[in-house]
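Quick one: structure tokens for this chain, please?
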Amino acid sequence: MSLPPSTTGLVLEYDSGILPPPYSHVFRLALDWSAGVLTTQLDLHYIDREELTEQEIFDEGFSLNDDYHFQGKLASVWIKPVQHLLEDSRWTKKAMDEGGITLSTIEQGKNQGVKIPSNQEQWQLMAQDLIQAIYETEKKEAPLTIHYRKVDREEIKEISLTLHFSTREALVQREKGKSTLVWEEAIELLKLVFMPDYQYDLAKEAPGTKRGSFIDCGDGYWHELGKGVVNSHASFDAVGKIRAGLDRLLD
């Protein structure tokens, strides 16, 4: 379905549902592209923390004030992806007992009412990407960089892949220079990277020098694929796909 030309914005509202505190949260993300730029407002609020102690919150890596508000502009490169996802969406009347996203389109300046998209996962990923773009735009977080090293008998090859959500750009840094990677391909690779189990008791602060494939997911710790990084499920070889995907970027 194509969007009516009068559609100039979108409001996404999310509830994490059964997710326990301190992780449970809600957010409202309003997008407006009526002027050709992406004017954005985010209101994120963590909920149900009343029964937790301060130490319990700290132990999970949170602070006492993790709520976040943003009002400003994002790069216009995000407009088309949002519009295309909206065009491809279908709606459901199924109750969201375990949380999820609802959408409201803005047409001719009026809210058209709340709808529940059936492609929940795609919209939740889009919302996460937009929030990450906000965090980078506001310098709250730096772009994510993944480092990869392959050691064989004859040589060592290294690359880094940096994802700039603020501008929707993926840059590959090699010894001979930089190149770009198609954004969608970079995101699919990123999903694979965070799929396996990382065994931090085997991690090193320096990359390996013996034959093998090594990855640093941006936190400064190096893991060997197949040893310190293992598949979560025997039915899907995520480690093999990560190695193949990153090997393709080496040359």
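Residues 144-247 form one domain.
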